Automatic annotation (TrEMBL):
<keyword id="KW-0472">Membrane</keyword>
<dbReference type="GO" id="GO:0008374">
    <property type="term" value="F:O-acyltransferase activity"/>
</dbReference>
<dbReference type="GO" id="GO:0019432">
    <property type="term" value="P:triglyceride biosynthetic process"/>
</dbReference>
<keyword id="KW-0812">Transmembrane</keyword>
<dbReference type="GO" id="GO:0005886">
    <property type="term" value="C:plasma membrane"/>
</dbReference>
<protein>
    <submittedName>
        <fullName>Putative diacylglycerol O-acyltransferase tgs1</fullName>
    </submittedName>
</protein>
<feature type="transmembrane region" description="Helical">
    <location>
        <begin position="32"/>
        <end position="54"/>
    </location>
</feature>
<keyword id="KW-0012">Acyltransferase</keyword>
<keyword id="KW-1133">Transmembrane helix</keyword>
<keyword id="KW-0808">Transferase</keyword>
<dbReference type="InterPro" id="IPR045034">
    <property type="entry name" value="O-acyltransferase_WSD1-like"/>
</dbReference>
<feature type="region of interest" description="Disordered">
    <location>
        <begin position="507"/>
        <end position="526"/>
    </location>
</feature>
Length: 526
């Protein structure tokens, strides 16, 4: 009997070894294919596209913009190419590229005073009084002929928290009226939020084509009470950061030469990694579901700072490592494969961002393996290394260049409806408000909550991590196709917290937190 058991255990061990070798071979084969594909595209396809397709398109765009200054005096300015990435949207019916920012206030403000504050903001931001138009295949902001502030600012007296929560969620995909600027503001004087201990709220919604996250944050600060001391501190901090990250002209030239002639493959390879990423599995009977679900949760900022002090790794890397680990666990739990790579699209502002109403950001695919790391610290080291390379390689220039090329193509063929492929496991962006809490007419903004749109098919989860007033909050927005119930996104937030706990307990074995059916398959020898 013992011999039979020994033979059975030996056979099982052999089968497990074969399975692990087969998995490693598949991963190696896929990696080889991506490398060869990126080399082929960079050498034989990309040069011809740049010379014979993109360069003529860009020259045509510049000519049209010049002609507009002569023949179209009502045009304010042309959209920049980054904004053209999100211009093709069903804006009047069901937009997928809106920002909704809710400011929960400790106190109530006079509605007429709020209207007056918005009028002041409009003088600084002319795009907020313009409509989107297209002339000779180029998008412009055109001064609105019949602009009225009453079409954009409203007061809602509703006090039922459940009804208000549903209303806020529906605002993400609510259409914009034809012929009007793409924004609105709603004041809720009776919205008492029990968790935040607030008594009113203000919602500001804009379409992504008006600006990115940093432009939106600057707009919110303009709406709130001025704080000259804090504004000076923020400007001083940004100047120091920009000076630290400034690249000399010689270094820029070297990066450009390397990008064009030596390593364009690196950019192409990272883009292919994004398309080849594992994604959230969805049930067949639920793949066509519409709508979104949202959840926000406070995290222990002292825990993250403790990890940073212990490991010497920046807070940004720790946050992203937690998100990456949680996404991997979610994919495995929903029946995803334990091979290949997980690519999470991380959105970053460009360092020359002017803070005005425009888009000046780019996306970087940060890659982690789906097979388990030896420990959580190993994943953190990998993520930290990728963030460090953003500042010391031409890869960010390549990703910015790629975004501009896609924007140029999107603008030229903007009347066509493009199906968005899966790009990465999810979208992640980090927001940080520096200094004292914001105030609106003397009332403290206790908590800001961000709701973002979802690109259909491209990604089913947006992860926003926000630092404000000494608090750290994770804000999740998922499609109902991938997260049919709110508890599904709540579980993801819990996973992020558990990832932080594991990082705090150094040396944790990642397999201890996997679903049992994956532990043997994923087991990796150090």
């Amino acid at each position: 009997m013992g011999c039979v058991e020994c033979r059975y255990l030996e056979a099982a061990s052999t089968n497990n070894l074969i399975a692990r070798m087969s998995l490693k071979f598949k991963i190696w084969l896929k990696e080889l294919f991506l490398i060869l594909s990126s080399i082929f595209f960079s050498v034989f396809v990309l040069p011809f596209l740049l010379v014979f397709f993109f360069c003529p398109l860009y020259a045509y765009r510049r000519v049209v913009i010049f002609l507009a200054t002569v023949f179209k005096p009502r045009f304010h300015t042309a959209l920049n190419l980054d904004s053209c990435l999100v211009v093709c949207d069903d804006i009047q019916n069901r937009p997928r590229n809106s920002f909704c920012f809710v400011l929960y206030l400790k106190g109530k403000i006079p509605y007429n005073d709020l209207v007056g504050r918005v009028e002041t903001v409009l003088d600084k931001r002319p795009q907020l009084t313009c409509t989107l138009t297209r002339w000779l295949s180029v998008y412009f902001w055109e001064k609105c002929k019949n602009f009225s502030l009453s079409n954009h600012i409203f007061q809602n007296e509703e006090s039922d928290p459940d009804k208000l929560s549903e209303l806020l969620l529906n605002m993400i995909e609510k259409g914009y009226p034809t012929g009007n600027p793409l924004w609105e503001l709603i004041y809720f004087p009776n919205y008492a939020h029990p968790e935040y201990a607030t008594t009113s709220a203000v919602l500001l919604r804009i379409h992504h084509v008006l600006g990115d996250g940093m432009a939106y944050m600057a707009l919110v600060r303009d709406l709130c009470d001025p704080d000259p001391t804090m504004d000076k501190e923020i400007e001083k901090m940004l100047k120091t950061l920009r000076k630290k990250l400034t690249i000399s002209p010689l270094k820029k030239f070297a990066y450009l030469a390397e990008l064009l002639f030596v390593t364009p493959r690196q950019t192409v390879y990272n883009c292919l990694k994004g398309f080849n990423s594992q994604v959230i599995p969805m049930a067949t009977n639920n793949s066509g579901s519409s709508g979104v679900t949202q959840f926000a949760k406070l995290m222990d900022i002292s825990l993250i700072k403790r990890i940073s002090k212990k490991t010497g790794v920046k807070v940004t890397s720790i946050i992203h490592a937690g998100v990456a680990g949680a996404m991997r666990r979610l994919i495995l739990e929903k029946g995803g494969r334990a091979d290949g790579n997980l690519s999470i699209i991380y959105v970053l502002p460009k360092m020359n961002h002017p803070g005005t109403m425009t888009n000046n950001s780019f996306a970087m695919p940060l890659i982690c393996p789906m097979t388990p790391e030896p420990s959580q610290a190993a994943r953190l080291a990998r993520v930290s290394d990728q963030f460090d390379r953003i500042l010391s390689t031409p890869l960010p220039l390549g990703m910015m260049f790629t975004a501009s090329l896609l924007g140029l193509m999107n603008e030229t063929f903007g009347l066509m409806k493009w199906g968005m492929p899966h790009v990465g496991g999810c979208l992640h962006s980090n927001f940080a408000f520096v200094g004292e809490p914001m105030k609106l007419f003397g009332h403290v903004v206790e908590t800001p909550i961000l709701y973002t749109g979802l690109q259909p098919g491209a990604h089913h989860l947006v992860v926003g991590t926000l630092s404000y007033n000494g608090k750290f909050m994770i804000q999740l927005l998922g499609s109902r196709a991938a997260f049919p119930e709110r508890d599904d996104v709540v579980k993801f937030a819990d996973y992020v917290r558990e990832e932080f706990d594991m990082l705090d307990a150094t040396g944790s074995d990642e397999n201890d937190y996997l679903p049992p059916q994956f532990r043997e398959l994923d087991k990796k020898k150090n």
